Every structure is written in structure tokens, then in C-alpha cells.
């Protein structure tokens, strides 16, 4: 615990209390604190969405997201997980040892890893994509959760175990390449795997699968790709016109499990987009689902458009869709 605390103390000691992070974050703004206000931030660590906006804007380069993540890990160590086991019981029960895991359709060399959220809200598109990859390139599919939700609440031991086990299962199947279609899985799991990792848009382009999307619309970037825009540049190939980036919405509301303790803030993020007349594209199943749930009916994930299913997010049967993946 000492070591973890020292990490964020060293980082935050550079804070000049310019309040820029506070002005750019609904959570920090609500409580009137900066990332440098570590005592209060530590108490409120589970109210944060781990979106990284504070890290982007800080003039002295304090990584607020990492500060909060380390505070959460320290809390879990200090109380042996009592707080998280109570507050996030259902999520932990599902994701720590993923209940709907299915490796029956894994193939050697390369597999699609759609994560847990995309198949929940886009079951038809997942099916079509799996069929196309199998027919065109002999690529199979594994249904698995990358473990990020468990890592986000600070369960470091569980995080390590999940990664080790996923790696072990992939290697046991002879997998050499994992195709990720969720930017969260990519940012989180991708860096831990020893096998090659590619994003789905890179792979579709390589295989010559998919149609271009007419018009650019507005683009909502998921938190993990906001700074690097790595996925965005691969997606640009599939957009006939350049899309306008949405910069003034902090998060879809699902990030970091912050919505559990801040449901109103989580819901409020989408309000700026609710009445926008044009199509809003995104490339994260969780963002598309949550923005739609919160009233943004014009949100479209780019993948169903590229593959021609034009599927809208199924926010009603998402859990059932996810459960089904175990039996496919
Ligand atoms: S933006 Fe950086 S320096 Fe400014 S208050 Fe926040 S953490 Fe401190
Ligand atoms: S990570 Fe996001 S929600 Fe958390 S403090 Fe930073 S800006 Fe606010």
C-alpha cells in the first residue's frame, strides 16, 4: 500500500491548482476539487469515470486517470476488497471468471475477440462478422471478457489472473493473432498479450471486406482512443467524408464504473448529443449502447454500417444476447 500511495503522491505534488482539470470534468466540478486534492479525491475515487480528460488537459502532465486507478488499488488492498465486493458484486460475479466464455470456435493462427459488450448490443453484426471472417480467411471467434471492468475497480490480483488465463487459453489453441473490435479491450488487453494484436478495421481492409459509409457525420471517440486516435485513422478509410470530431462530451457514462455512484452525471454526459439532428458515429459497443439508452437515438456504431447489417444497438436484450454467446 505504501508503494502505491507514494506513486500518486509524487505525481500530484506537481499540481499548481490551476483548476483546469476541475473545469474539464463534471465529477471534479461537482465536488469542487482538483486532481491535486488527494485526500478528498481518494475518498471519491470510485466516483470517477477514468475517462482521462484530466490527464489530457493538465499543464504539468499529471495523469489523473492513473492517480485515481492507483487510489482504487490501494483501497482494495487496504480493505481486502470489502468495498468493491459489496458495490460491484454483480459485475464481479460475471466478469472475474467470465460466465459466458466460449472458445469452441477458436481457430489456430487468428481469432476474432469481440469482447463482452459488442455481442451484447450487436448480436446480428457479430454473427455476420464471424461468418465473413471464417469464410474469407478461416478465422474463428472467441467469446471472452478482457477483464478491464475488474481491473478498473482496482482488483489488481484478479486483473493479473484474468490476463494470465486469457493468454493461456489462446496459446493452448495455437492462436498467433487476436483481432480486437473493442477499443477498450485493445487499450487494456492488447498491451499484455504476447500474440500479435490487430484492430478489426485494419483486418477488414487487409481482407477487402466491407463497404464505405456515405457521409461523414459526427464522430464520438471512445475514451481509450481519444488521445492517440489510432483506431480513428483506420476507420477513416471506411468513411467517404471526413467526420467531425465531438470534443465536448466527456464520456459515454460507462467508463470506470463511475456511473454506479454517479448515475446522474453518467446520464448527463449524453444530453449534449440527444437532440443533434445528424448521425453520430462511434466505434465502441459500450458507448453506442449507453448513449442510446440515455436517449441519443441517432447513434450508430460504424461496424454494422461497414458490414451492411445497419443494426441498431439492442439495449433491451443485451444481457440475454451476452448469455447466448456461451452456447453458440
Ligand atoms: S490541471 Fe493539473 S495542475 Fe491544474 S489543478 Fe488539475 S492536476 Fe493540478
Ligand atoms: S479520469 Fe475523467 S472522470 Fe476521472 S477525474 Fe479525470 S476527467 Fe474526471
Brief overview, please?
The chain is of the alpha/beta class and 328 residues long. It contains 20 helices and eight strands.
Q: Any descriptors?
A:
328 residues, alpha/beta, Fumarate Reductase Iron-sulfur Protein, Chain B, domain 2, Rossmann fold, 3 domains, four-stranded parallel β-sheet, 20 helices, disordered N terminus, binds iron/sulfur cluster
How does this structure look, described?
By secondary structure, the protein is an alpha/beta fold. It folds into 3 domains: 2-78, Fumarate Reductase Iron-sulfur Protein, Chain B, domain 2; 109-207 and 316-327, Rossmann fold (3-Layer(aba) Sandwich); 218-307, no CATH class. The protein has 20 helices and 8 strands. It has helices at residues 2-12, 20-23, 26-31, 38-43, 53-57, 64-78, 82-87, 89-95, 118-121, 123-137, 148-152, 156-172, 183-188, 200-207, 230-236, 263-268, 271-274, 285-293, 302-307, 318-324; strands at residues 109-113, 140-141, 175-180, 196-199, 218-220, 244-245, 280-282, 299-301. The strands form 2 sheets. It has a 4-stranded parallel β-sheet with strand order 2-1-3-4, sandwiched between helices. The protein is globular and about 55 Å long. One iron/sulfur cluster is lined by residues 15-21, 34-36, 58-60, 62.
Strand content: 5-15%
Radius of gyration: 20 Å
- The strand line-up of the biggest sheet is 2-1-3-4
What's the CATH first level of the largest domain?
Alpha Beta
Write down the overall geometry: globular
Largest sheet: 4 strands, parallel
Distance between the termini: 43 Å
Amino acid at each position: 500500500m505504501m508503494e502505491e500511495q507514494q506513486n500518486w503522491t509524487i505525481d500530484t505534488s506537481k499540481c499548481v491548482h490551476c483548476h483546469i482539470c476541475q473545469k474539464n470534468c463534471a465529477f471534479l466540478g461537482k465536488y469542487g476539487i482538483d486532481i491535486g486534492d488527494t485526500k478528498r479525491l481518494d475518498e471519491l475515487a470510485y466516483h470517477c469515470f477514468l475517462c482521462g480528460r484530466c490527464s489530457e488537459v493538465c499543464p504539468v502532465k499529471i495523469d489523473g486517470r492513473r492517480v485515481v486507478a492507483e487510489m482504487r488499488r490501494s483501497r482494495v488492498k487496504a480493505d481486502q476488497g470489502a468495498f468493491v465486493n459489496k458495490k460491484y458484486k454483480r459485475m464481479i460475479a460475471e466478469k472475474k471468471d467470465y460466465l459466458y466464455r466460449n472458445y469452441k470456435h477458436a481457430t489456430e493462427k487468428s481469432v476474432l475477440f469481440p469482447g463482452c459488450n459488442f455481442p451484447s448490443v450487436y448480436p446480428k453484426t457479430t454473427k455476420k462478422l464471424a461468418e465473413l471472417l471464417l469464410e474469407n480467411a478461416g478465422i474463428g471467434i472467441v467469446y471472452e471478457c478482457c477483464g478491464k471492468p475488474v481491473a478498473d475497480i482496482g482488483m489488481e490480483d484478479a486483473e493479473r489472473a484474468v490476463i494470465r488465463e486469457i493468454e493461456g487459453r489462446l496459446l493452448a489453441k495455437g492462436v498467433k493473432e487476436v483481432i480486437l473490435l473493442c477499443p477498450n479491450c485493445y487499450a487494456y488487453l492488447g498491451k499484455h498479450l504476447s500474440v500479435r494484436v490487430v484492430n478489426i478495421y485494419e483486418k477488414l481492409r487487409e481482407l477487402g471486406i466491407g463497404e464505405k459509409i456515405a457521409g461523414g457525420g459526427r464522430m464520438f471517440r471512445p475514451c481509450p482512443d481519444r488521445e492517440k486516435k489510432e483506431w480513428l485513422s483506420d476507420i477513416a478509410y471506411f468513411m467517404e467524408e471526413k467526420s467531425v470530431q465531438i470534443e465536448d462530451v466527456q464520456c459515454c457514462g460507462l467508463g470506470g464504473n463511475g456511473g454506479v455512484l454517479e448515475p446522474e452525471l453518467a446520464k448527463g454526459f449524453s444530453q449534449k448529443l440527444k437532440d443533434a439532428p445528424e448521425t453520430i458515429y462511434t466505434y465502441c459497443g459500450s458507448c453506442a449502447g449507453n448513449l442510446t439508452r440515455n436517449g441519443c437515438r441517432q447513434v450508430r456504431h460504424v461496424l454494422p454500417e461497414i458490414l451492411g447489417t445497419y443494426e441498431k444497438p439492442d439495449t433491451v436484450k443485451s444481457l440475454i444476447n451476452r448469455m447466448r454467446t456461451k452456447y453458440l
